[in-house]
Amino acid sequence: MDRPLRHPSFGSYVSSWEAWASDEEIRFAGSSGGVLTALGEWLVRSGRIKAAITSAGSASAPTRTVPVRIISKEEFIASAGSRYAPVSNVQSVDDGGTDLAVVGKPCEFSALKSLQQSNRGGSGRGSGDAVLFAPERRASMQRADSPKPSALK
Questions:
Q1: Which of 89, 106, 120, 131 could covalently link to 67 via disulfide, CB atoms 3.0 to 4.6 Å apart?
Q2: CA-CA distance, 118 to 26, in Å (whole number)?
Q3: pLDDT tens readout for residues 66-122
Q4: Nearest to 55 by CA among 33, 79, 71
Q5: What is the DSSP letter of 47?
Q6: Could you give the CA distance from residue 144 to residue 134 in angstroms, rounded to a whole number?
Q7: Is the Cα dihedral 28, 32, 37, 38 positive or negative?
Q8: CA 71 to chain centre
Q9: Distance (Å, rounded) from C-alpha 126 to C-alpha 137?
Q10: 55, 79 in Cβ contact below 8 A?
Q11: Do 95 and 149 form a contact (C-beta atoms < 8 A)?
C-alpha cells in the first residue's frame, strides 16, 4: 500500500475517487450519486454479503430514523438517501455471522471496532474496511465481523 497522504482538514488518506451509480434508479434515489446504495445492493446481489445494516425512516413514524437490515434492491432504494438524525446501526449487528455490511457514521465504526476488539481480544479490524466521504457528510461502509449481542447492552 502506498504511504498515506495528508489533507489539512480531512487528515490521512490513501486515495480519493469520484463515483456514482450506473443504475439510474439507484443514482437518483440515493445521496451523492447513490454510491453506497449501489455498492450495498451489488454486495447482496452478488452473494458477497447476506445483508446490509443501514438506516431508514420508520414505517410507523417516517420522521424517526431506525436501523434496518436490507436484503433486496427494493429495500436499498426505499432506504436510500442521507438521514441527518441520531441512529445506532451498530445495535442491529448480531450473531448473523460475518456476511454483513454496515452503513453508518464514523462514530459508529469507532464503536463497532471497539466491540470487535473486545469480543475477539484482537485488533478490532473487520474483514475489510472502506470509508466513503459524501460531499455533504461522511458516510461509511464496512464489512463487519459481528459482535455478540451481550456486548451491545
A1: 89
A2: 37
A3: 989 999 999 999 988 887 788 887 777 765 456 888 887 777 777 777 877 777 655
A4: 79
A5: T
A6: 21
A7: positive
A8: 14
A9: 23
A10: yes
A11: yes
Phi, psi of 54 (to 5 degrees): -145, -160
Of 114, 149, 143, nearest to 126 (Cα)? 143
pLDDT tens digits for range 108-147: 777 777 877 777 655 444 445 555 544 443 334 433 443 3
CB-count burial class (<10 Å; 0-12, 13-18, 19+) for 10:
exposed
To which residue does cell 497522504 refer? 5
Using CA atoms, how far residue 32 sits from 39, 57, 109, in Å, is 13, 18, 20
pTM of the model: 0.68
Grid cell in block for residue 99: 456476511
* Cα 99 from Cα 48, distance rounded (Å): 7
